[in-house]
Amino acid sequence: MTGKENETVTINRELEYLVPDYLDSRKKDVAAIMEALPGGNFESIRILGHNMKGTGGGYGFEAISDFGEEIQKAAQSRNTGMIERLAGELMDYIGSVAVRYV
Description:
Blueprint: E1 8-11, H1 19-36, H2 42-55, H3 62-76, H4 80-96, E2 98-101
Parallel strand pairs: 1-2
Helix pairs in contact: 1-2, 1-4, 2-3, 3-4
């Protein structure tokens, strides 16, 4: 999943008012993933990944859908290291993605 940092995403101007809240919610998802990890709550992590997979593309963030899919798979296989790595990469992506509205 690396290499997604500093990506520019082009989004319809009609969604401009939704994007900041959407990205904030994904930051909260990452925090929830990191909270669930020590207790081994892989089902919650899987659901969070599944939801990201389903919503990212609708907002124009295909990378978030990709991260969600990978997080979902890692949770299903209980791969703690992979989940930690993906969560960190997702936070980096959210912090660096540039949004251009058209």
